[in-house]
Amino acid sequence: MRRQLFATKPLAMLLEELKGENRLRRILGPIQLTSLGVGAIIGTGIFVLTGKAAHDNAGPALILSFVVSGIACVFAALCYAEFASMVPVAGSAYTYAYATMGELFAWIIGWDLVLEYTVVSATVAHGWSAYFQDFIGIFGFHVPHALTRAPFDYDPGLGRIVSTGTTLDLPAIVITILICAVLVKGIRESASFNTGMVAVKLVIVFFVIVVGAFYVNPANWHPFAPFGYTGLSFFGKTVLGQSDAGGQPLGMLAGAAIIFFAYIGFDSVSTHAEEAKRPHRDVPIAIISSLVICTVLYIAVSAVLTGMVRYDQIDINAPVSDAFRQVGLPWAQGIVSLGALTGITSVLLVMMLSQPRVLLAIARDGLLPPSIFGAIHPKFRTPWKSTILTGIVVAVLGAFLPLRILAELTNIGTLLAFVMVCISVLIMRFTNPAAERPFRAPFGIAVPILGVVLCLLLMFSLPGQNWLRLFVWLLIGFVIYFSYGRRHSVLAKLNAAQDASGPAAR
Question: What letters, b where the CB count within 10 A reaches 16 and e where it falls short, cover 35-65?
Fold first, then answer.
């Protein structure tokens, strides 16, 4: 049993899978891949989480929070790019862990990615709902109060969960269903739809930066770090910096941990390596390009937002559009809300596009039922069953869980994935030094090591409840693996067959 748990999947076996019929179409070029990355990164991070992180955690020091998160992401992105160029198959960090650390670790990170993409999608659906309601409110239309948001929320002032007096978030359900229908239709349609939305939202982001800069009041940047520059905790106990009434860490580092959510777009690029025309070249270009572009835009928007409105007066649900309302530009509020809707829609599309591809990679290895999660539509060539299942789960989470809880739950999963990828690259450098690496992260082993250290630092800056939720989720995953995955593992069956045939067969 121990041998199976730590059995690694050879690179040759991974590449052989690409020759089968049950594979995805290679139709994505560098522009489309970069658009997918930008589409995933620019959206909820700018239009939603900037408000939450500035209001609750960092104040104007959010500008530095984005810098810290961006630096941590650079190291992780370089490791992703190296692995994606070596193994251009679906699965992202799951596949990389399988090739280096063994089946059990691969399952852990794969199960973690399921949490990451599902909760990200639900968070994005919630953000879309807030901006949709803000936009139609300009014209005097309103969603019935009972259907406007999740039925409960976390109040940082009280340090506990409170009732909102509502039933569910109906707009979040509607947008999830619509996106799911587009994704089942096909990758070409999804990518083209996303590219168009990315162009629109980039125009809006530049509008926010340029127009908003004229309404910046430098007084709003004082105090620059009202919660301090730290916010480091260890399994929920604050060891450096302030904490709120509920014991959650506050400060610039705590803000960086919260908005780290905004950077996971380049992770989604790697999940589409199997659909890239020239993955060895295009995927690394798309990963790094999307990260650099978006980091610069994040820093600029956070500076403008906290300059336009004092941090404690920022609306956490629709912060950017509401900022223009507060400075007396209601006409700009409508433009920003429309742009935010477009931007957040593209994020939701990319996240829900990525999730089924991770499930596909796991199902190919027999760790999940291939009849459901490995099923490819005969006409559209998309993982249609898992796409529909993903849509159902996302709609339920988006309807009933609030933004604060969703955002924090997402981040710990994302950071764990980045840590595992950096470790995988480090291991691969020693176990397969001669393997072909079309792209190689620079500065030797320093890049993966720094990636591990910085991502762990941000993980420890998250509230303790996140660690508890992560452990519960992983426990559920272990139950599934040991009850189903271990007994149906393709690699285990292959190794058993080789053992039975004796040395002669090998």
Answer: bbbbbbbbbbbbbbbbbbbbbbbbbbbbbbb
Enter the pTM of the model: 0.77
Angle subtended at Cα 114 by Cα 380 and Cα 399, rounded to the nearest 5 degrees: 90
- DSSP SS3 for 161: strand
The larger pLDDT score, comparing residue 8 to residue 262, is at: 8
Weakest-pLDDT range from 291-295, 347-351, 445-449 = 347-351
- Tens of pLDDT, residue by residue over 229-271, are 988 777 667 777 888 777 778 899 888 888 876 776 667 777 6
pLDDT, residue 309, reads 95
Q: Which CATH superfamily is domain 2-505 in?
A: Amino acid/polyamine transporter I (1.20.1740.10)
Output the CA torsion sign for 356, 317, 346, 69: negative
Strands 237-240 and 242-243: unpaired
Nearest Cα neighbor of 371 from 387, 356, 382, 360 is 360
- The two tokens of residue 442 are 């620079």
Determine the residue type at 243.
S
- Across 10-65, where does the E strand assignment appear? none
In contact, 148 and 400? CB cutoff 8 Å: no
Alpha carbons 273 and 183: distance in angstroms, whole number:
17
Task: Report d(CA 316, CA 332) in Å as an integer.
Answer: 18
* Contact in structure between 124 and 347 (CB atoms under 8 Å): yes
pLDDT of 60 > 70? The answer is: yes
Q: How confident is the model at residue 300 (pLDDT cuts 50, 70, 90)?
A: very high
Q: Is the pLDDT of residue 194 over 80?
A: no
342 closest CA partner among 244, 223, 195, 468: 195
Instruction: Please list the alpha-helical segments (H only) found in 374-402.
Output: 384-400
- Cα distance between residue 79 and residue 77, in whole Å: 5
Residue of 144 and 279 predicted with greater confidence: 144
Domain residue ranges of the chain, discontinuous segments joined by +: 2-505
Q: Pick 263 or 419 by higher pLDDT.
A: 419
38's CB contacts (< 8 A; 6+ apart) are: 198, 202, 265, 290, 293, 294
CA distances from 176 to 136, 191, 407 (A): 19, 17, 17
